[in-house]
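Q: How do we represent a protein-ligand complex in a form that can be generated token by token?
A: Start from the inputs.
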Amino acid sequence: MCRPVTDAGFILLADQREQIIDHARREAPYECCGLISANEAGVAVTVHEMTNILHSKVTFEMDPEEQLAVMTELKDSDVLHLAAIYHSHPRNAAYPSAIDLNLGGYGNLLHLIVSLADEEPDLRAFRIRDGGCEEASLLVVA
Ligand SMILES: [Zn+2]
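Then emit the structure tokens for the protein with zinc ion bound:
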């Protein structure tokens, strides 16, 4: 289990949460993945849907060209930065899998996981590093 962290959480708009859940449902039974940019206040601005080139039910790898396009766009921005990555667990809980822990955390990026295992989707945020994880607070605002 991931221990909770008390540092500043991540702020997501309700529409962005819906977009991530919708993306997960469209890709099921395969995992979906994507990037989230945020402004200087740590508020999510854009959800960038990426192609999972592995088309896998248990792991993901983002299309490198799509990823590069977003990175390039953000590099030119004064206000936006890459804040988080997300992926789905179509049949498992919204906790990092052994595969996720081994993949590492993409630097210091927050890692959002959406689970479709239950009727009500579950979206949680984690920091994954050194093979361990911490759960970060995720605030969804309308
Ligand atoms: Zn995973």
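The chain has three helices and nine strands. Residues 33 and 87 are 4 Å apart (CA to CA).
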